[in-house]
Design goal:
By secondary structure, the chain is of the alpha/beta class. It has three domains: about 160 residues, Thiamin diphosphate (ThDP)-binding fold, Pyr/PP domains (Rossmann fold); about 140 residues, Rossmann fold (3-Layer(aba) Sandwich), CATH 3.40.50.1220; about 180 residues, Thiamin diphosphate (ThDP)-binding fold, Pyr/PP domains (Rossmann fold, 3-Layer(aba) Sandwich), CATH 3.40.50.970. Helices cover about 35% and strands about 15% of the residues. It is built from 20 helices and 17 strands. The strands form three sheets. It has a seven-stranded mixed sheet, sandwiched between helices. Strands 2-1-3-4-6-5 form a six-stranded parallel sheet, sandwiched between helices. A four-stranded parallel sheet has the order 8-7-10-11.
Length: about 525
């Protein structure tokens, strides 16, 4: 790093980020961060992306990290700004996304006055962060920033929150002086664990090999398919995953169903579960009279690639140890076939049409919630694509996730399947898409209700919605006009009611550059 006689602390922080390969900053700054903003202004190598709400900032950083395989930085304003972004940091944490979260704070000498925006930022950050640090003085900026990057880049990716007091940002600093923490290098499981797993895979019992994290990319999936065929195991993925490479010509893996009853049926015959970068399956919520664990009694669980271990290298080792290189070729998904459906738009007909029309190497960002419950099955034979989904259940992730993915992959088409109710949490992401000229096609599944909550009201045994409940669960009075809202954000859009009009709008949107929104008004 080049040093000048009087670099500001903010300059040192920016330079250290760039030196460590972080060249994108999603930001919503305030007064305490103005010296950092000024430093960014002096760094043309840093791409600065404004989000009009902090949940857009953190959600975009999540989507970016999933596709770039490296962290972006965020820039948030004090404790309240961080608090506004916590929901999508929760999703990022569950996805294993690396994020370097930079939060401004008051100058150190101003904190005793307890000014209106003063808060305990460290306490707010800790539930979503693997590492939290307030930079104590200018001499620690370079080392603390380098450590934050190292923590974020761990396997799986982590959220590192670095708090920058305003006076540390504006002070003169030469940087240096303290060593950064070394980057953890993921390795293989212990020899004892690996021997135990090989024994289990050869014992003839009904086995589920559950894959998560980096094991859900195309190459390790092919390796896992060989292993499973060689020992008679069944492949399965968790219900929620940060990124999967799937579609025609790739190994198809089912996920654990969301429904407790369906999940219990799916796993009923499992005698042993081997986890590779995944956790044991549990119900999303507690339901009266239903279990929390989805595994049958007596099912043995063996964790093969735990946190900090490399699931991809572990699968390669397992294939070699079992002689799976001599097994049949991986079981690959065939291309989808058949005509497009016709008539009024339903969730099923829309998803079938999307699966037929999606271009090769698209990135499908899914926050379709209940309307997209069959999306995974109906797009098995779609063109090869990456699949990103909401991971932590905190709604409002879809539009920001697509925004970040588009910035990470400017040469790929991003398709966002977004439920209307959850889309309202972070619709400001459309403005960022317009400003950055991002190639994102947003498909709004407009049923004008929180349909999942109508179902969950029954699932927990509370019955059907009456008038008061309906007013808390429906979005029809007044109805949301997504085309008008998109236009107000600078994004063109169209509303469609039939499969034919949807297919025409999607083809047109995919043939043009820049963002476009399709409001799919579903039959209910």
């Amino acid at each position: 790093m080049t040093h000048h006689s009087a670099l500001s602390g903010a300059d040192v922080l920016c330079d250290t980020l760039l030196d460590h390969g972080i060249d994108t900053c999603f930001a919503n700054p305030g007064t305490s961060e103005m010296h950092f903003v000024a430093a960014l202004d002096r760094k043309p190598a840093m791409r600065c992306v404004l989000g009009l709400f902090e949940g857009v900032v953190t959600g975009a950083a999540d989507g970016y990290a999933r596709m770039a395989d490296k962290p972006a930085a965020t820039l948030l304003h004090l404790g309240p700004g961080l608090a506004n972004g916590l929901a999508n940091l929760h999703n990022a944490r569950r996805a294993g996304s690396p994020v370097v979260n930079i939060v401004g704070d008051h100058a150190r000498h101003h904190l005793p006055y307890d000014a209106p925006l003063t808060s305990d930022i460290e306490t707010l950050a800790r539930p979503m962060s693997a590492w939290v640090r307030t930079i104590p003085d200018p001499s620690h900026i370079q080392s603390d920033t380098a450590t934050a990057v190292a923590v974020a880049r761990g396997k799986p990716g982590r959220i590192a929150t670095l708090i920058l007091p305003a006076d540390v940002a504006w002070s003169d600093s030469a940087g240096g002086g303290h060593a950064a923490a070394p980057l953890d290098t993921p390795g293989l499981p212990s020899p004892e664990t690996m021997r135990k797993v090989v024994e289990r895979l050869r014992n003839g019992r009904r086995t589920v090999l559950m894959l998560g994290g980096g094991a859900l990319r195309a190459a390790p999936l092919a390796t896992a398919s060989r292993v499973a065929q060689g020992c008679g195991a069944r492949l399965l993925a968790p219900q929620s995953n940060g990124r999967m490479e799937r579609g025609a010509g790739r190994v198809a893996v089912n996920r654990v169903p969301f429904s407790v009853d369906s999940a219990l049926r799916s796993l009923a015959d499992a005698e042993q579960l081997i986890l590779v970068g995944a956790r044991p399956p549990v119900a999303f919520f507690a339901y009266p009279g239903k279990p929390g664990s989805l595994l049958p009694a007596g099912c043995e669980v063996v964790e093969l690639a735990a946190e900090g271990e490399d699931p991809v290298a572990t699968l390669d080792w397992l294939a070699d140890e079992l002689g799976s290189s001599a097994a049949p070729l991986p079981l690959l998904e065939a291309p989808g076939a058949g005509p497009l459906p016709s008539g009024g738009l339903t969730p099923a007909s829309l998803i079938t049409a999307l699966g037929r029309l999606m271009p090769e190497h698209a990135v499908l960002c899914d926050e379709s919630v209940s309307s997209g419950r069959d999306l995974f099955e109906q797009t098995r034979g779609a063109a090869p694509h990456d699949y990103l989904q909401i991971t932590g259940g905190a709604i409002g992730s879809g539009l920001p996730m697509a925004t970040g993915a588009a910035i990470a992959c400017p040469d790929r088409r991003i398709v966002c399947l977004q439920a209307d109710g959850s889309g309202m949490y972070t619709l400001q992401a459309l403005w960022t898409q317009a400003r950055e000229r991002l190639d994102v096609v947003t498909i709004i599944l407009s049923n004008r209700r929180y349909a999942i909550l109508h179902a969950e009201l029954k699932n927990v045994g509370a019955g059907a919605a009456g008038e008061n409940a309906r007013r808390m669960l429906d979005l029809d009075d007044p109805a949301l006009d997504w085309v008008a809202m998109a236009r107000g954000m600078g994004v063109e859009g169209v509303a469609v009611h039939t499969v034919e009009s949807f297919a025409g709008a999607l083809r047109s949107a995919l043939a043009r550059s820049g963002p476009f929104l399709i409001e799919a008004r579903l039959q209910t």
